Amino acid sequence: MTKKWYQMKEQAAGEKRLMFLWYVYRIFGKRIVQFFTIFVAFFAFVLSKDVRKYAKINLSVIYEYCKKNSLKTTKPDIFNQFKTVLNYALSLVDKMETFCGDFDVKRLCFSNADAADAMRKYVAQKKGMFFICSHTGLIDVMRIYTIKGFENLDREIFVNVFLSESQSQIFNNFIKNISVKSTVRTYPVENIDMETSVEIQENLNNGELAFMAGDRLSPGSSHLSFSAELFGQRVEFPAGTFRFAQLMGVPVFFIAAVKGKKGVYNVYMHRFEFSGTKKETIKAMQNEYVEFVQKVSSMYPTQFYHFYPLFGEKNINI
Q1: Separation of first and last alpha carbons in the chain
Q2: Where in the sequence is the domain holding 55, given as residue range(s)?
Q3: 129-133 and 252-259: which strand pairing?
Q4: Percentage of residues in the chain with pLDDT exceeding 90?
Q5: How many structural domains are present in the chain?
Q6: Which of 137, 247, 277, 294 has the most crowded CB, counting CB atoms within 10 A?
Q7: For the domain that residue 127 is a member of, what is the CATH number?
């Protein structure tokens, strides 16, 4: 039986090691932590068969699809397999930098000016928005934009984030300990109920933002899924994310933040607009989201962070 992502062991380092890196960061700066992280990523790559396996599978699937469709992408060689693991490890350093307030908002570059302008307009109008993100890149860098990115704003923007409490407990506790300013409310995806829906609806009506991933099944409702073709393979996606987004009745955006050259994060946004019945709207939202994830991930395959059998178990020699 193929394992789901939430059945995999949490990949974060232990709490003591994370706090050690945090003290190193505060005393010696980010570059030293990045230096340590290179070695951590190397040993994780060498010692973990699963990490190597799924990095290779994902890169191979993306490469074969892009090759058939005459699209440029990255070869699935061992160098790029390691680069995927290293990118993931370094993204956790950027995540730490973001939550402690040191991340420079100037490192964010929006690729879609129209979508970015629409987002700023809704913020100015105190209108809530629902962002459906993915595990390509590091969406957490957008948190700093909600704090420092909007000029002449006379209020704080609160963000409602849905995450897995069971799968990321160690790292999430670490992030809470180092956060200097809390404008983020977290909700476990395992415990979403009617009360949660009502609370989020009220928050969005007050001009707040919500972020929920659309590319991983929820541990609490893994049976609520839909199947779609991603890079030529059938993949299960969480239907609940799109039903929840439609239910909120606020503007919906697909969003991904991927690291480019010189540490700049390219923010890709797509404003979902559709007029139809509830069923038709959800279906269109699902289709457009999968296309969005495929487009961004094909450009940045070494930031496609799914270290589990997303595409099913494949017989690839490691």
Answers
A1: 20
A2: 5-303
A3: parallel
A4: 53
A5: 1
A6: 137
A7: 3.40.1130
Q: From 181, 139, 177, 144, select the one nearest 161 (Cα to Cα).
A: 139
Is residue 88 included in any domain, yes or no? yes
pLDDT for res 175: 64
Residue 278 forms beta bridges with which residues? none
Tell me the pLDDT tens digit for each residue of 37-80: 999 899 989 998 889 999 999 999 999 999 998 888 889 999 99
- Under DSSP, the state recorded for 190 is G
| Amino acid residing at 146 | T
Angle at 79 between CA 73 and CA 84, to 5 degrees: 70
Report the SS3 class of residue 316. Answer: coil
- Please state, as a whole number, how many other Cβ atoms lie within 10 Å of the Cβ of residue 317: 5
Residue 263 covered by a domain: yes
Q: How far apart are CA 88 and CA 135, in angstroms?
A: 10
Between these two residues, 178 and 229, which has the higher pLDDT value? 229
Residue 185 lies in a domain: yes
Q: Is 164 inside any structural domain? A: yes
CB contact set of 28 (below 8 Å; sequence gap of 6+): none
